[in-house]
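Bench notes, bay 3.
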Amino acid sequence: MTASTMNGRLWLAASSLALGAALIATPAAAQDATGASTAENAQDAAKPEQDDAIVVTGFRRALENAINKKKYSEQIVESVSAEDIGKLPDASIAESIARLPGLTSQRLSGRSNNISIRGFAPDFSTTLLNGREQTSTGDNRAVEFDQYPSEIINRVDVYKTPMASVIGQGLSGTVDMRTIRPLDTKKRVIAIGARGSYADLGKLNAGSDDKGYRINGLFVDQNDAGTLGVALGASWVDEPYQIEEFNAWGYPNVTNNGPVVIGGSKSYITSTQLTRLGLNGTLQFRPDPRFTSTLDAFYSDFKDDQIKRGIELPLFWSAAQLQPGFTVADGLVTSGRYTGVKGVIRNDAFQRKAKLYSFGWNNRFEGDNGFNLTGDISYSRTKRNELNVETYAGTGRAAAGASDTISFTSGKNGTVFKPTLNYGDFNTILLTSPQGWGGNQTDANGLRIVGSQDGYYNNRIVNDEIWQGRAEAEKEFTDSFLKSVQLGLNYTDRSKSLRPDEYFLGLKANTNGTTSVAVPVDARVGTSDLGFLGLGPLISYDPLKLVNSGIYNLVRNVYPDVVAKNYSISEKVWTPYLQVNIKSMVGASELTGNIGVQANHTDQSSNGTRATLLGFNANGSPNVTSTRNTDGDTYWDVLPSANLSLRMPGDFVVRIGAAREIIRPRLVDLRNSFDYGVSNSDPGDPARFTCPTGRVCRTVTGNLGNPSLRPFRANAVDVTFEKYFGTKGYLALQGFYKDLQSYIYKLDSPYNYTGFTFANPGTDNNNLPIIINPFGRVNQPINGKGGKLYGIEAAGTLPFDTFVSVLQGFGVTGSVSYTKTKVSPAPGAPATDLPGYSRWVANGTAYYENNGFSLRASARHRSSFIGEVTGFGGERFNRRARPETIIDGQVGYDFGQTGTLSGLSLFLQGQNLTNEPFATVNPNADNQVIDYQRYGRRFLAGFNYRF
């Protein structure tokens, strides 16, 4: 641990402990270090009840709480509130957030797990838990929400404009998840719930499930004096997800400028078993009204256990032959026949395990002289393993074994095949390498794979850690234009590392490069049905059991591209801030808001690997040289912000926000890693290097991270017009404009490799000596000029009884947003869409809730967007996704608070009722389907019971 890190962490502890040594006079209302205020908490608890003669519950109460938060906030904010303690409106936090104006989500394995705000990818936003920054289960900064049980979250706020006193803000927005404060509840609560789930695609893979369950419990209590409160929550999930996945390698031209045809397919049936234990605890101590100490703890143990079975079909890009007589429509071969197809049968396992720990301790003192002190210290850590095991089978190794004749039909839902071989016959389909991929491999100890690899083992080990501490002093004023002044200092210390552990798999029995092996009987689990692809039954076995049985040699992959994945990144950010809060009458209207500034000092460093292949040792193992290097940079960002709200008679509110916004670079882009090699065909730039006569020249290409990257930066303006109907309903029109002053691009640029170490290139096929041209290229993330993003959002919640009393209990809530982007993917390139960007996003919910009965139907729509999909080794890349509309519904009954069944509510939910697929296509070619995934419908039935 460095001296600066030690000093920073000592400061974290001291900032909270020092404030615990004194008490100041009487309570006052001011924002605490976790972003909420005692005044806001009081408003959230009291306002809806003050506005109604009858206190409503359930979904209507959740809407009123969210409207109340929006109405009285000084920022432009969207909220979702629990219908009751431990009961968000949806089974997933991400699904609830995705219904808010200007927000949407992308599905992973059929469930929403991350959020795009105003057309930006998830990495442009940040997520807080009780106002504190959180580590991520992904590779970058974006939090994946399926890590957090919805049952323990009481409210989620999405801030669309920044405020100086909120730390860890994103460029597109900030998501703050809030848990229960037990002393604010003021009474004992015991709540339990359970639900069963059913996936209507059935048990796609042999040995998988189509039914699951989740259970949860929550306990909240206080002592009689109201000085000590505790909240304890627990949630357990064990649920299956089933997926039918078609994937095309691509669409090459049959002839020059001729029609295109599917070039290959890699399609699966995927069964996922998601298990998650979530624990949450809060202890509040208020021995005196002047002092509150709050201790929060959260733990999540998450496992996503996935089995994928399918057939990889090398077609046009292989020795297979497309036969004459095919049909063509709109430039695509829509039906035809391939001969000589050697399919690669895949039984793959993917396991993602993550443990997340989060702790926070907040102390707040409030004085009768208007002087308040706050101290906060927090810690968040994620430990993650992603294991991906591929195993191959087929009729024989390389040229050996039978080939297949396969007819195919391509359409808007992908391609369906008709084979002649039986891929479900264990006597025909053997463990082998049907395409001869990989070639000979040897590790440093002489362990060998002969001829070709029979699978691949990839374990990615990720650790992410955040220490954060904060101290703030505030002075309140009375009878003044100034409501209060806040002065604070925050310190954040984040470190993240990735260690790859990758191996080639080769059958031990394959000693001569020709052997294939029958699947051991004890690893077989029967057959799985690939009927949705027309491929019929498929041999099925347990790939992890096979690997653990010792049937394979595991030869470590030490090639440069793998070695260079290893990195560790450190960020230390000091943030002093000043915020002036305003409250004053302007005629008959009230002007409230804040003006402030943050100054971020960032010290970032990255330790990575520079690796190159020098050749091969005598035993055939790759001779790779690698060195570890550390580099980084320091810089300042000054971030002014202003939020002003004019609250006019008639419940009209006009808001304006203006700010300088940033989001620091994706963590993988900061890695100080460099892998490079000699191209097989590119002679390089003749203007910089002349190839001698009688020689063959090759240039060098590389991939390089950038530890000196600066953040994405934008100047932003937001304007909102809002009309409220008490806290029952509202209408809002919002406009925003973001001028991106800097953007991070991946750019190929010239690079001088003079002085670098290379293997002896030898000669080419014509025995001509090869010379290396050192003036090559490198692909690297860089800072460049940005672009513009702007849009308009219309939103509202309208309970119909506000206008027609006989429609008591009926209402609608929803929004529609239009966003336009003008951002180039590289300097000088034409503007294109940002990842995660949809031009149109809309959602709506119609509901009825009265006399205990509840019924609601919801729809979420997003237009075409650039989606993020997972590729080989867990790496992610972007593809154009088709528009999608998700329809959900719920019906329930609440027995109320009197009678024998008081406190009990029953419900039935249906998700993705129209079985909407996720589909990606080639740009400007909607009939060239790359991915087509069906998740099926999900049904959930359960109860909640509150004592």
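Next record in the batch:
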Amino acid sequence: MSVRDLMLLWTYASFDVVDIRPGHVKPEDRLEYRAPTSLFLVTTGGAARIKASRIDYSSQQAPVAHIAKGEHLHIQSTPAGYEYIMIMYKAQLPHPVPGELDDPQRAVEQFRASYTAPAEAGIACRSMAYEMENLWKQAHPLLRLKVKQQVYAFIHLLLKEMEGQAGAGRRDEDAVDAAVRHMEANYSKPWTLASLAEDLGTNTRQLQRGFKARFGHSPLEHLISIRIAKAKQLLEHSERTISQIAEEVGYPDSYYFSRLFKKYTGISPRSYRQSRNQHRPSLPEDCRISPTSPSHSDIVSAGEGRYDQRENATQAFRALLSLTLLCTGGLVEIDGHLRVPHLRGTLELARRPRRIAVLDNQYADQLLALGVEPVGSVVCTVETGGLPANLALSLGRMARLGTKEQPDLRRLAALEPDLVLCTSFQEHCYTEISGIAPAMMLDRNEDWRLSLLRLGELNGLKWKALQIIDAYNAQLSRLRRRLEDGGSTPTVALIRPRDGRIRLHTGRHRTARLLYSELGLSAPRLAANHTGTSSMIPLEALSELRADRLFVLTDNTNREQTRQYEMNPLWNDVDAVHSGKVRHFDTALWIGYYGPIAMSRVVEEIAEALLQ
């Protein structure tokens, strides 16, 4: 959205306040409402999930939203209830519109569209809304005139915050790129967040916000991941002592380093070195199930004991399982009790879990594939109409636990789970979660097959997990052979229009790995040479991808932006658009539900797109 164009239109527009109306939705109730005019919806209490045709958001994430005239508004209240004030108005734009607009047609559409405002505007806007509502209900002409004046001030505040957010987004991206380069070049220095920000000429809040948006974790967690990766290389390829390696990667205290290494890998540095030396020919890189192997196996690299469809299945399963458990530390059962390694250490369970709650969508998919139905799951923040029917129906039966960014801990506690699966997205509330039930933190970017094996073993279903992996790998092998038989390896770009720019998923992204590493498709240069899982590019750079095919992830949050792009001449300059090789896919299916049910369907969609 061009905030500058929106400012210009509000400057020239004439408008009248139609009504200022307070309201509330009872706890866990639902309000269906069709907006008779354009309006601003201001959250004044409680929380709710709010949906319209072009927006889907939590009132806690965006306390203020603009709702277009005619929109069907769906407000689903939380157990806390929901209170709001609607500021309803009619606006008339000049004709013709101002010539200084960057894109007049798009600007007018944005002026009338639904959108959310930054959370930073919430407190001030709420206070202004209360005052305007109080003045409006007195119905005095002078007070009504004052309300109109205050609405201008209200809009001015919103636009100012939106302008700051747009500028902050661009600054955040630049700061993150600079920080990552700086960390990789100077990982052994004794960093603090404050010293890193000082070296880069930025501030800690900007770094925290930028890293959370790009990677889903904090800057210092990113630094730890760089140090752990470097330590793995040194453990495997050098003869240095563990103390020497610890100091080289930035940890003078070798005892602390060993504890940290085990926390993040599930295995001690000494055990890691021993396992790599003993099994180097057949272990995948980084001791993780790797989808990047060029062999017939998508999990274990070529060599002794590889996982190959042409080998005896039982033998392959045992080899795969032993390798996986060796890499991950594995579940250990002692006197009926389970010791389960995870990113936060080792979890002690008195028995196998029966009531599992999941705070990341992907684990709902993985558990359902194993035949285990979670008692509750977070919901995807975008529409899920493209999910396979069997997955969608099962999800519909579960208790909803908010979103992965903001889980509903009150409802989670009410379910009385005996295990909660979470990721770094819940790092900010991990203490509260582990106070409700034993919490197991997993790496959300881990190949789903490794996560499935963990969950299979945890539930006594490792045989079923291996059967699922076997079937999926066979599906991949069939498609890879068909692509090879066709004799072409097209360049495919996986993109998602978002926030006024385009997110280009790189070879490090978990779904993009399927395209490039597992199926052997070619990645655009901009997607291949990047350290993160994605990068943001402007529409003007799309033609530089030189992609034969364009895979576009679409959902309710970006459908309008995508439609606008498709009417732009810059979009039509792209090779794939010229040749009719653009395919739209469902965002939730491709990147939300990362497990065997969703990913098997993704493979089918890739086959349909490439082998028509």
